Amino acid sequence: MEGIELKPQFDELQKIFDRCIKHACRVLEERIATKTARLAPEQRQEQERLEYNRIADELAELYLHHSGLSDLRFCYSEPAFLWEGGFFEALNAGEKKKYLAFSAPSFDYSRYEQDNTAYDAELPYFSAVVNVVVRERYAAYLRQMEISLPESAPKSAIAASPIAETENPFDSILTDEQIAYLTTAVNDVKMFNVSLSADELKAIFACKPEAIVRSNNNRLVAFFFSGLSSRGLITPNWQSVIANHKLFLSKDTTRDKYINQSDLSTATNYIRDVGVEGKYATLERYLMQVKRL
C-alpha cells in the first residue's frame, strides 16, 4: 500500500491484531493437540479432517457476510497483512478515518477478552478480521498436520528417493526475471552455505537441483517460501514439496540430514511470532517487490 507516512500507525495497529490472533491460534492448536494426543494415527487424521471441515465452513460464512475481507485469504500469513493486503483499501472513507485516528495505546486487551466485538465500532470489522486470519492460519496448520502424518510410517514405506512427478511440483508461476531477483534476495541474507545462480534457484523450483545446498537458517527458508506462497506464486504445500524432494540439507555439518516436514513446520510456527527485522526485513523487502516485476 502507498502512503509511507501512514506506516507507523499501521505498524501499531498490526501489533494489536497480532496479539489477538496469536493467542487465539495458540489456543486452537493446543486444543486439537490435546484432543488427538492419545489417538491412533488413523483416528487422529480423521479428527483433524473433521476439524478442518468445521473451520472451512466457518471461513465460508465469514467471507459470505464480509465480502470486504476476501483479500485476507491471500495475505493471512503475511507478518504485515494490514499494510500489505487490500483490507484497508476496501473500507469506505469514514471507516478508514477511524483506523487512522485510533490511538493504539488505548487498546485494552482485557476489554477485548471480555467481548471480542468491543472495538468494532472504533476499528470497523476488527473482530471479523481476527476471526478470518485465525481460521486461515489454523486451517493451514491442520493441512500441514495432515501432510506430516505419513512421516511416522516405517522407513521401508518411504525408502525410495522421491522423484518429481510433474514438471512444476511447486506450481510456480515465477518468471525468469523474478527468479533472478529472488536469487539476489537469497544470497543477500546468506540463506544457504553457498551463493546460488539464477539457474540454480530455477532448478530448485523445478525440484531438479544439480547439487543439494545446505540451509544456514531453516527459519529464513520458511519465511522465504511462506512469503512466496502467501502471494500466490507457489503452492501452499511448499513444505511437503521441499521435504518429499529432499531439496535442502540441514545446518548440522556433522551429518547429511535433509530438512523434513517437521523442521519446516517448526520453523514456520516460529516465524509467526518473530518480528520482521534483520534478515527477515531484508527478505520481506524483496518479497514485497517480486510481484511488481
Account of the protein in words:
By secondary structure, the protein is an all-alpha fold. It folds into two domains: 4-152, no CATH class; 160-290, no CATH class. The chain has 14 helices and two strands; from the N terminus they run H-H-H-H-H-H-H-H-H-H-E-H-H-E-H-H. The longest helix is centred in the N-terminal third of the chain and has 30 residues, at 7-36. Residues 150-164 have low confidence and may be disordered.
The SS-based structural class is: mainly alpha
Low-confidence blocks of residues: 150-164
Write down the overall geometry.
globular
Task: Tell me the number of strands.
Answer: 2
Task: Round the Cα radius of gyration to an integer and report it.
Answer: 20 Å
The structural domain count equals 2
Described by strand count, sense and barrel closure, the largest sheet is: 2 strands, parallel
Give helix % range. 55-70%
Give the strand order of the largest sheet, numbering strands 1, 2, ... along the chain: 1-2
Order of helices and strands: HHHHHHHHHHEHHEHH
Estimated share of beta-strand residues: under 5%
Mean pLDDT: 87
Number of helices: 14
How far apart the termini lie comes to 16 Å
